[in-house]
Amino acid sequence: MNKNELVHLHALLVRVAEAYVEWGVAERDDFSAYHALGTTPMALQSSRADHETATALLARTLAGLSDSPRTEEALEDATAR
User: Where are the alpha helices (DSSP H) in the chain?
Assistant: First the structure.
């Protein structure tokens, strides 16, 4: 995956994280380790390795949050709207 594709994936995962917070599945604090890295999708000057680290951490965090009955209920509520 090239850097542009990785940054795009990074941005998509950030949107999923925002949705989880919006739906009440997660709290902003659940992503504190990710935020501590300081690499966002908009940090285009950051290296590919920095984006890869941030994306992997965000993906692991989301995966952990996804394995919850609260997540399933929130997704059902969100899609019912």
Answer: 3-23, 32-37, 48-66, 69-80
Residues 77 and 23 sit within 8 Å (Cβ to Cβ):
yes
| 5-37 tens-digit pLDDT | 999 999 999 999 999 999 888 999 999 999 999
Q: What is the pTM of this model?
A: 0.85
The ranges assigned to domains in the chain are 14-80
Q: How far apart are CA 52 and CA 76, in angstroms?
A: 31
Structural element, H or E, at residue 42: none
Burial 67-80 (b: 16+ CB within 10 A, else e): eeeebeebeeeeee
